[in-house]
Amino acid sequence: KPIRCIVKLGGSAITCKNELETINEENLKTVSRQLRQTMMVSDSSCGKVLGMDWSKRPGFTETSCVVDDFCDQPALDFSHFMVVHGAGSFGHFQASKSGVHKGGLNRLLVKAGFVATRISVTSLNLEIVRALAREGVPSIGMSPFACGWLTCERNIASADVSMVAKAIDSGFVPVMHGDAVLDAAQACTILSGDVIIRHLAEQFKPEFVVFLTDVLGVYDRPPTEPNAVLLREIEVREDGSWSVVKPTLENMNKQVEITVAAHDTTGGMVTKIS
Ligand code: ADP
User: Fold this and answer.
1) How confident is the model at residue 196, as a pLDDT?
2) What is the best residue among 191, 195, 197, 215 to mutate for testing ligand 1's pocket, by most ligand atoms within 8 Å of CB?
3) CA torsion, points 229, 232, 236, 242, in degrees to nearest 10?
4) Per-block average pLDDT, block size 10, for the chain (274 residues)?
5) Residue 12 Cβ contacting ligand 1 at under 6 Å
6) Domains of the chain
7) Given the CA of residue 266, which atom of ligand 1 is nearest to it?
8) Rounded Cα gap, residues 225 and 222, in angstroms
9) DSSP secondary structure code for residue 101 in this structure
10) How do beta strands 150-152 and 155-158 pair?
11) Where are the extended beta strands (E) located within the chain?
């Protein structure tokens, strides 16, 4: 069955970016509910509303409730979706302080940073999986490192998606995340959620990739800068190159060659668009 949609939960939307390892609980709950509704709406075979607050049912631990409630449900089909999330205030600090992205696992600081980064991002992943499961989405956390994904010079070198495909075929919603991984050239690096999405999109060719974030869309420069303009449309040509339609007072639809890239220090927005 074709994959309908990859959803990216932006780090800035689901975490409080300026508070270390803090989840934006309200946003996470809202988005989990909306995702469940979207997944069900897109599937005409769903008859019954899934998702109840398991945590409020007496006499069950959360784990047994998950098992119990899934058993009660008609066979719902979530098989068109996968979720990828960014790290936000999880992982970034540990990774940048120790230089995991620059490699060099023979240095104790880098090795410790690698471990700390993975503890942080997998903790966030677990909380997101838990929030989705509470809403009735049969989500499964899948870490690139544990799936055996490897990079070379920071680009994906081998990233077998067969386990992701198997999880989807079995009716689960895989939830992947930016991770610390092993790198053939520099021993280790950070694989970002957006690069993961690019790979998954190449492999699964979804109908949509949806980026949920804390701003209204792609701007012509970081939205915190004065005079940043929200772009109405990004036109992608056959060869994969793209240009943006920037609204101006004179011409609401004027096509202009502007470079989001020039303003994008992390490369994040360009990777998302790619
Ligand atoms: P990530 O998981 O990579 O952090 P986010 O979706 O959270 O992904 O990233 C969105 C953030 O990117 C926004 O908070 C915004 O401030 C920032 N940003 C930088 N450049 C741009 C741009 N040109 N347009 C929109 N947002 C941008």
Assistant:
1) 96
2) 215
3) -10
4) 86 93 96 84 42 43 48 54 95 94 96 98 97 91 98 96 94 95 97 95 92 88 85 81 67 53 59 81
5) yes
6) 5-214 (3.40.1160.10), 217-274 (no CATH)
7) 19
8) 6
9) G
10) antiparallel
11) 5-9, 81-85, 139-142, 150-152, 155-158, 173-177, 179-183, 187-191, 208-212, 233-236, 242-245, 255-256
Cβ of 174 less than 6 Å from ligand 1: no
Scanning the structure block, which residue is given the tokens 């996968």? 82
Residue 264 Cα: closest atom of ligand 1: 20
> Would you state the pLDDT for residue 261?
55
| Cα→Cα distances 41→66, 76, 137, 170, Å | 22, 11, 13, 20
Q: Using alpha carbons only, give the angle 199, 29, 96 rounded to the nearest 5 degrees.
A: 50
Q: What is the DSSP letter of 115?
A: H
Give the pLDDT confidence score for residue 38 in this predicted structure: 79
**Ligand 1 in contact with 215 (CB < 6 A)?**
yes
Nearest C-alpha neighbor of 162 from the set 104, 112, 212, 204: 204
Half-sphere exposure of 197 (CA within 13 A, CB side): 26
CB-ligand 1 contact for 219 (6 Å cutoff)? yes
pLDDT value at residue 264: 52
